Amino acid sequence: MDRTIFIMRHGETEFNTQGRYQGQLDSPLTEHGMDQVRQMGRLLRYSVEHPSEWKVISSPLGRALQSTQILCEILGYDFNEIETDSRLSEVSVGSWSGLTLKEIEQGWPNSLEDTTMYDWYFRSPDGESYEVVQERVTDWLDSLSSTPRVIAVTHGLTSRILRGVYAGLTRQEALSLEVSQSACFQLSNCTIKRISYEFDEF
């Protein structure tokens, strides 16, 4: 079956502006974040014919649900018809949730040594491992085998790993993927297409 999935990250949150790593904690969208979602909604409206025929699935975390509600308003989709799926939740960073990088380095000295820009997320002593997240997003993709059209609202790190699984990338390749709040990604026919409203990013 031909299948198309649009993967979208939630809009900017207050924690994002403070440099705090949310994990599975929550903070509300900023005004800018709400505008980002509206822009993405308008872009998707031109990319998606008959939105009511699509399945909209959101992470159950508040920032994703807030984004999904705004998206539904733009698409004319009944928010009561969406599904939530915990497999789309952000990677848990355990005790590091809500902290800045400086606070993490102060509280857990040397824990970030020899890490890459993104791999450090998985050094949290009680957070999720890459393999656990990879397994849950793989399971989510497999569950869509009979669902041809999906719009999914998820999170930055989860989106990287999900796209990496879809494209058959290595761990390092997946963690190096772009994560954006001004673009979504179309997964179709074993290819990934970036769709953005910021034309100067191309």
UniProtKB/TrEMBL annotation:
Cellular compartments per GO CC: cytoplasm
Record's protein name: Histidine phosphatase family protein
Matches recorded under Pfam families: His_Phos_1
Keyword annotations of the record: Glycolysis, Isomerase
UniProt: substrate binding residues: 9-16, 63
Residue stretches spanning the membrane: none
Entry annotation: catalytic residues: 10 (tele-phosphohistidine intermediate), 90 (proton donor/acceptor)
Cited InterPro entries: His_Pase_superF_clade-1 (IPR013078), His_PPase_superfam (IPR029033), PG/BPGM_mutase_AS (IPR001345), PGM_Phosphatase (IPR050275)
Database matches in PROSITE patterns: PG_MUTASE
UniProt key word Isomerase: yes
A GO term for molecular function: phosphatase activity
